[in-house]
Fold this sequence. Notes:
The chain has helices at residues 25-29, 59-64, 71-77, 81-87, and strands at 2-7, 17-23, 38-41, 44-47, 91-95, 107-113, 121-127. By secondary structure, the chain is an alpha+beta fold. The termini are far apart. Its main location: membrane.
Amino acid sequence: MATVEGTGSGEKGQGGETSVTYYRLEEVAKHNSVKELWLVIHGRVYDVTRFLDEHPGGEEVLLEQAGVDASESFEDVGHSSDAREMLKQYYIGDIHPNDLKSQSGSKLLVILDFPHCGRCSLRFPVSLLHSGKQILLRRPC
Ligand code: HEM
């Protein structure tokens, strides 16, 4: 496990300090029972131990995903936005960047337009590692 300090807002005096705890996949894998059940959804780690009894889809499906990346099964079910909102309360940290799957197939094309300047429009592909991080961009002119 590693904890990394980062600035949430990047603005001075706005109190945007955040701290992220990173977990290796092998550590997540150890929490695979009803006593302690962690799973990974989209690069984020969730401790759903106390949710086992409450999950509307039953505890069995959660146990099947115990200690592993459950992103695909989570999405296959087509969980509601309420379900996605619930995730927040079980979030305990992010997967360590070294353990994130290479997502070469999922690139995002960023297009920046600068209305004040007729010459400047930037297009560049970026790789999506995980959400929640800040990207700083510098205006070209
Ligand atoms: C912390 C993670 C999860 C949360 C917060 C969660 C939450 C919910 C909620 C609120 C529902 C009710 C329907 C809805 O609102 O979408 C539901 C249903 C269900 N969930 Fe999850 N879920 C989680 C993980 C999973 C995972 C990993 C699976 C794996 C297959 C799963 C399978 C199901 C199934 C099969 C249903 C029933 C769908 C139905 O009856 O139509 N869930 N879940």
